[in-house]
Structure formats: structure tokens, C-alpha cells
Amino acid sequence: MRTVIFYTRNQCPLCVEAKQMLTLIKEDIPYKLIEKDINGDDDLTERFGLMIPVVQIDDQIVQYGQIDYFTIRKRLQEKT
């Protein structure tokens, strides 16, 4: 099963939209979702502060900022 790490923060409208998209995709393509709030971690805030939301699939950042449903879905369907 693939692993998706979703870097997010509170009060982030783009993050809410991206989470809804990830939830929709998960209904068709099973994967493990790990959600990380960067506000509680200085290193993550420094690394991703201006990029949020960030979607990482299997240790590779796939998208950040505006998350595209079709791009994420396609990456999850690819063979590993």
C-alpha cells in the first residue's frame, strides 16, 4: 500500500480543499494517509512554510500549493 504524507496547517483554505480531494481519491484507490501539521514543528515550518499544502507520495513531493486531483490520482495509480 502506498503512503501519502499530507503537510498542512490550521486556518489554511487550500489545505481544506486538498484534504477533501485526498479523501475522494482514497475512496477509489486505497493508500495510507499521514497528516502532519507543520505548526507544531519548527523544522517542518521552515521547510514547508510557504508551500503548504504539500502532498508527498512514497518519499517524493508530488505537489504543493494548488493540489490537482488528477495529478495525485495518476501518481497513486502508477506502479511502484
Properties at a glance:
single chain; 4 strands; Glutaredoxin; alpha+beta; 4-stranded mixed β-sheet; 3 helices; Thioredoxin-like_sf
Structure description:
The chain has 80 residues and is an alpha+beta fold. It has helices at residues 13-28, 42-48, 69-77; strands at residues 3-8, 32-37, 54-57, 60-64. Strands 2-1-3-4 form a four-stranded mixed beta sheet, with helices on one face. The protein is globular.
- CATH fold field value: Glutaredoxin
Assign the CATH class: Alpha Beta
N- to C-terminal separation?
10 Å
Q: Main sheet: which strands, in order across?
A: 2-1-3-4
CATH architecture: 3-Layer(aba) Sandwich
Order of helices and strands: EHEHEEH
User: Helical proportion?
Assistant: 40-55%
Largest sheet: 4 strands, mixed
**Radius of gyration using CA atoms only:** 12 Å
Please report the number of helical segments: 3
- The H-level CATH homologous superfamily, spelled out, is Glutaredoxin
Strand portion, in percent?
25-35%
Give the mean pLDDT. 94
Sum up the overall morphology in one term. globular
Total count of domains: 1
